[in-house]
Amino acid sequence: MKKFAIPFLAVISLTFAVAWTMGSRPVRRPTSPPSQPPNAVSAQSVAAVGLVEPESENIALSCAVSGMVTGVYVRAGDRVQAGQKLFLVDDRDLQADLRVKRAALEAARARLAKLEEQPRAEDIPPAEARVREAEASLADAEVQKRLIESVTDRRAVREEDVQRRRLAYQAAQARLAEAKAQLALLKAGAWAPDIAIAKSEAAQAEGQLKLLETNINRLTTRAPIDGVILQNKVRLGQYAQCGPLSESLMVLGGGKYIHIRADVDENDAWRVRPRTQAIAYVRGDTAQKYSLNFVRFEPYVIPKKSLTGDTTERVDTRVLQVIYRVTDPSAPLYVGQQMDVYIETPVASSTFRQPSGSVAGGAQ
After folding, report:
1. Tag placement on the chain: N or C end, fewer CB within 10 Å?
2. CA-to-CA distance for 58 and 14, rounded, in angstroms?
3. Same domain flag for 239 and 294
4. Is 356 inside any structural domain?
5. What is the pLDDT of residues 237-274, one digit of tens each?
6. Which of residues 187, 214, 241 is at a domain's end?
7. Angle, CA 258 vertex, CA 283 and CA 328 arms, to 5°
8. Does the pLDDT at position 299 exceed 90?
9. How confident is the model at residue 116 (pLDDT cuts 50, 70, 90)?
């Protein structure tokens, strides 16, 4: 019995181990996917990956001048009109300078109006009175000169008095001529060069004001077209940097129809023809499919983009981008959504046809 006890225990232990291992193995029952994968419309169809985009394509908005954001007037999903305010960069310093420029323009215009309205009706009567006064003084001086010159006996008057009367008469003539000249100058109005200078100063002040208003207007970013705000990364108080950014401040999309940008592998690009029909399926629900109409080719073949985000990935193929329009403008699709696209192609032929709108290289 001792000779068979150890093998017997070993057999029992092995049997228990095998039974426990078999019983603890997970049972993997077959599962079906939530939706069946899309099927090609025909054997000659070309499959492509599509990306939903607006008819105007994605417009990455930026600001003309960098600065702190002091006003945001829209949110993501808002529909905007062309010229509508989107966000504002701090303009307090320019607004203060604007008041100074407006005051300078008003002063320049006032100086110009003063010159153009000369002479004033109130200024002419005093000038005419001065002329009459000068005439009376001249007449008096002439009488005095004649009286002293009429004396025949030179011993009765001094020669000095005679000369003084004559000089007084000449001075009265000069004063009358001056008064008449002043009256003529007053009636003639402002000098033409003075008016030209005043006009130039007013135009310069107006130009400086318009320049400042333009600079202030550049601080307000407005919608270039009618569309929808697809993405908004602008927040009050942040510093908005102008120029190309890794992440756009705002993304705007416009147009009536929805477009799908299909990436066709370069190995199948020769099979795609213009003005052919296509079908797009929503990923995750093959019951939702949409008819597509051909719009255009992007005639430049580009490297295929991967959405993995891995910095070490390499491009192993290139794609031809074809733009299609979704026939239903109210289709519940979102910009940036991926679609499975199947493009109808004619029966394969050995004859090569260049897609419409593409640029052919090589020798002519």
Report:
1. C
2. 68
3. no
4. no
5. 999 998 888 888 999 999 889 999 999 988 888 888 88
6. 214
7. 85
8. no
9. confident
Rounded Cα–Cα distance for residues 336 and 292 (Å): 17
The single-letter code of the amino acid at 54 is P
SS3 318: strand
Please give the Cα distance from 74 to 47 (Å, whole number).
Answer: 39
Domain that holds residue 133: 100-214
Residue with tokens 């008003």: 106
Domain co-membership, 238 together with 152: no
At 9 the three-state DSSP class reads helix
Asked if 219 and 67 touch (Cβ cutoff 8 Å), the reply is: yes
**Tens digit of pLDDT for each residue in 211-236?**
999 999 999 999 999 999 999 999 99
Q: For residue 80, is it within any domain?
A: yes
Enumerate residues 6+ apart whose C-beta is below 8 A from 188.
119
Give the start-end residues of each E strand in 157-308.
Answer: 220-222, 227-232, 239-240, 250-253, 258-265, 278-282, 285-303
Name the DSSP class of 283.
Answer: T
Q: Per-residue DSSP letters for 88-107?
A: EE--HHHHHHHHHHHHHHHH
Q: Give whole-number Cα distances, 93 to 98, 100, 238, 242, in Å.
A: 9, 11, 18, 19
Q: What is the pTM of this model?
A: 0.65
Read off the CATH number of the domain in which 299 is found.
2.40.30.170
Residue indicated by tokens 């002479």: 119
Q: Which two tokens stand for residue 25?
A: 């193995």
Find the CATH number of the domain harbouring 234: 2.40.50.100
End-to-end CA distance of the chain: 100
* 7 three-state secondary structure: helix
What is the spatial distance between Cα 148 and Cα 165, in angstroms, rounded to a whole number?
8
Q: What residues contact 39, with CB distance under 8 A and at least 6 apart?
A: 286
